Each structure stands twice: as structure tokens, then as C-alpha cells.
Amino acid sequence: MVLHRNTARRLDRRLYSIVPLIVLLLVFATSSAGCGGSASVSTSEHVSGKPVRAYTVDDVAKNAQAKLPSYVPSEMQEGYQYALAHPDKLQYMPCYCGCGLTAEHKNNLDCYIAGVDEDGHAVFDNHASFCAICVEITLDIKRLTAEGKTPKEIRAYVDQTHGPKGPSTDTPQPPG
Fold this sequence. Notes:
- The chain contains eight helices and two strands.
- The protein is mainly alpha-helical.
- It has two domains: 1-31; 40-165, no CATH class.
- It has a two-stranded antiparallel sheet.
- Helix 4 packs across helix 7 (132-146) and helix 7 (132-146) packs antiparallel against helix 8 (151-162).
- The N and C termini lie far apart (72 Å).
């Protein structure tokens, strides 16, 4: 079978007309990966308030009784409360929702806390308010800690259970 030159040109035009659609679909698919499609949101848009410096675990622990922001839905509040009360448990635990790439988080605690203000008050990150993976990891850490597991055992569980969900934050292993 021989195609006429005009038929081949029409076929080429049709292919070129769907290329933009394919590109658009690929862009949409990659931007909605991870937690709630936050891939296109910059770190500063995740934050409520203005952190003036990075936090330490001691900074966060001093804020254990802080009032949670109104944007945190009730089903996510337990994660925020645990993060405030037990920052030392989350600092060596990674998150696997992709927030290390999209929001520059370094550990699961970063999903909740962005920094501290000039008065030492915690500045919350809204990421965990819409990301079920972050909160699932935190609640697993809470449960395993209550069961008496060591930080290394908890980290191994988090890596094994949540690792397949997405890229990890760049989180160091617990000491010891």
C-alpha cells in the first residue's frame, strides 16, 4: 500500500495537533503527584506566619500547648498535637509524600513546623493539614513509641511501610 503525499502530511498534522495535549496531561500528572498536588506550591506558601529562624527540637517542645491554626481539620489535629508534644520522636523520621522535593522538608516534623518567630512561638507549616501520608507516618510513630519500640525500630517500620508511597525526605538515621 502506498500513501499519497497529502495523506502523509495530514497524518503528520494530526500527530502535531495532539502533542500539546499529551504535554499538558504529563504536566498535570506530575504536578498532582505526592500530597494534595502540592508540587507547585513553594515553601513560603505552606507557612502560616513568618518564621525568623529555623527551629530546634527544644523550640518546638516549648510550644506543646500552642493553639493549632484554624486551617487544621479535626482529622489532622492529632498529628499536629503529637508533633508539638514529641518533636524529638519525629526529627529522625522521614516523610514519604514527596514533600522533601516539593516543600524542602527534611523530616516528618517539618510537615508540621516551619520555624519559630522572634518570640520563640512555633510557626506552623500547613502541609500536614492536607496530607494524609504525613499524618499516617506520625500516628504510626506515636503508636510504635507507645508499644515501646526503639527509634531505630520505628524508623525501619516507617521506611518499610511508607517507603513505597513516594520519595523520602533526606532524614538522618536516629542515633545509637
